[in-house]
Design brief:
It is elongated, with a radius of gyration of 26 Å. By secondary structure, it is an all-alpha fold.
Length: about 240
């Protein structure tokens, strides 16, 4: 029986994700009638009820999801929206505030998922500025991204490149080094670090970094090119 309920749960969830709500609803109701302890199923049924305009029923489903899992942030936010739609504005605000407190127990903290999404937007904007040669603006956006989500090797690498464009090679080296420490498999950080060493006249260190870059990623074309040029220059 447990296996059958698990399979129904999986099927119902899949149909829900595909937007086949009528089919999903029948299956998910079957699941909770047999085992009412699936918080995510109650939340999904609440979403379906909300989409159908049955806000009061949606409220009951979301409340049940939270009884099972009080830390279910998505259900809390859905409940707040449902309360708002039936005119229970005070309850909506209370639920919303409680959800925010649970998501960020530290006042200054940001939910990691939200932080990642915001950081990515700053990164994309920074890349646009970078492509137009607007290094100051690019640096500002990259720093905003890193402040939100510090462990992003691609952002740190692009920040280093923008800094180097302004002649701040030492600062660039710091960021390239940090990027490769966060993710040793991220070849561009090694490549750009080697290039920065070369620009400072440290050909030996450059050669070493590019060699390591190719070990991490044998298909890294930039590292191959730089190594080839350096070898020709030495000859």
């Amino acid at each position: 029986m447990d296996k059958s309920i698990h399979e129904l749960h999986e099927l119902g969830s899949q149909l829900f994700e595909e937007g086949k709500y009528s089919e999903a609803e029948l299956i998910l109701k079957n699941v909770v009638s047999t085992n009412p302890k699936y918080a995510d199923v109650h939340n999904k049924l609440g979403v379906i009820s909300h989409l159908k305009g049955d806000f009061k029923q949606a409220v009951e489903y979301f409340k049940k999801a939270l009884e099972i899992n009080p830390s279910y942030t998505e259900a809390s936010l859905n409940l707040a929206i449902a309360y708002n739609d039936i005119g229970e504005f005070t309850k909506a605000q209370e639920v919303f505030s409680l959800a925010a407190q649970r998501a960020h127990p530290i006042p200054s903290a940001i939910d990691p998922f939200i932080a990642g999404k915001l950081a990515n937007e700053h990164y994309k904007l920074g890349n646009i500025y970078y492509d137009f040669g607007m290094n100051d603006e690019a640096i500002e956006e990259y720093k905003k991204a890193i402040k939100l989500y510090p462990r992003l090797p691609d952002v740190l690498t692009k920040l280093g490149m923008a800094l180097r464009n302004k002649g701040l090679v030492e600062d660039a080296i710091v960021h390239f080094t940090k990027a490769k420490e966060i993710n040793p498999q991220y070849g561009p950080a090694w490549t750009q670090l080697g290039l920065s060493y070369y620009m400072k006249g440290l050909a030996g260190l450059a050669f070493e970094e590019w060699g390591k870059a190719l070990k991490q990623n044998p298909d890294l074309k930039e590292a191959k090119t730089y190594l080839s040029l350096l070898k020709k220059e030495e000859k």
